[in-house]
Amino acid sequence: MKCSVYIATSTDGYIATTEGEVDWLHSAGNPDADMGDNPDMGFGAYMASVDCMIMGRKCMEMISSMNLSPEQWPYGDIHIVVLSNTLKTPPENLKGKVEMYSGEITDLIAQLKSKGLKHAYIDGGFTITSFLNFKLIDEMTITRAPVLLGAGIPLFGKLNNHIKLVEAESTAFENDFVQEKYGVNYL
Amino acid sequence: MKCSVYIATSTDGYIATTEGEVDWLHSAGNPDADMGDNPDMGFGAYMASVDCMIMGRKCMEMISSMNLSPEQWPYGDIHIVVLSNTLKTPPENLKGKVEMYSGEITDLIAQLKSKGLKHAYIDGGFTITSFLNFKLIDEMTITRAPVLLGAGIPLFGKLNNHIKLVEAESTAFENDFVQEKYGVNYL
User: How many beta-carbon contacts under 8 Å exist across A and B?
Assistant: First the structure.
């Protein structure tokens, strides 16, 4: 099964402030930019390419706190698995939308694969770093918002080894966000 | 006087390993890539645009440790100022090449400007962060090597405020390095 990442960071690589806030992301960039036929910077096309999602507990809690209406829900009806060793049930407003999982990541991938799922969207800094250490991430799209925070929660945590990226692509959008796409070449 | 940055980082934003090593940078990317008419990813053109350089002590010590021959020296004959409150004389192999400075950054900029200098290359993570906090950096070119280190010395340190970047440009080179260029819009 292919596992990929599609995530936004600040230009200095943070996914949230130290307090977990992402307001800076929503106010970043030039709001008057003409985004042409790509207003979502490829997110819709990416979502159409995945058939399941795996995220960490913190990532789920951030989504829960946004209290999204059905119209705002960005993940369609794909199967969403939330990794947590402590939480057995999801928050009230995510019931029926996500499934909690507390076992081994490699077992989870085998289970999803046996269900016929082919491409997982991996989300959340801690989860992405774990997947990289398991050599499970195949592709990463990082969208850098044009802002320096100077501190915060970094996208990438400690890795067991240096990881080589390949097949780099990049786009600077009219709103000054820069998107990079990489393959991953584990040694 | 214009102050700008031209620096290489890992994709996760480090300028060196925790031990200060940059070997990963020299081995990153596809060595067989056809770089066409831009083998140095714009460094020569950038150097031709600056007339002086300001770096921190650590940055100088790293350059000193490389023991560059005159043919390898990448900075031409531009005026180089090294910021240090502790070191009064440069290492033996940089004598005549750099000038030590221990005063205020704003005074230094005024001095360089009064000498008719117009565009300073600001180098070194700590120095760049200080200049950003003084609202002195006008433009940044960040060249990301296609490697994740997972830990190290970050390019950007703690900032007094969030800093808005503008006029984003990006290029993915054939060797899988991604270069981003930004203006800076201080509030």
Answer: 116
Q: What is the pLDDT of residue A187?
A: 78
How far away is chain B from the Cα of A93, in angstroms, using its nearest Cα?
32
Q: What is the pLDDT of residues B65-92, one digit of tens each?
A: 999 999 999 999 999 999 999 999 999 9
CATH number of B42-185: 3.40.430.10
What residues of chain B lie within 8 A of the CB of A173, using their CB? 168
| A172:B169 CB<8 A | yes
Q: Please tell me the distance in Å from B55's CA to the nearest CA on chain A.
A: 20
Distance from the Cα of A180 to chain B's closest Cα (Å) equals 8
Q: Identify the CA nearest to A61 among candidates A44, A33, A82.
A: A82
ipTM: 0.95
Q: Where are the domains of chain B?
A: 42-185
Task: Provide CATH code, domain A2-26+37-185.
Answer: 3.40.430.10
Look up residue A13 and give its two tokens. 């690589």
The sheet carrying A2-10 orders its strands as A98-101, A79-83, A52-56, A119-123, A2-10, A139-145, A178-185, A163-172, B147-148
pTM of the model: 0.95
Q: For the segment A57-107, what is each residue's pLDDT rounded down to a tens digit?
A: 999 999 999 999 999 999 999 999 999 999 999 999 999 999 999 999 999
- Residue B139 CA, chain-centre distance (Å), reads 12
Within 8 A of A30 by CB-CB distance, chain B residues are: 166
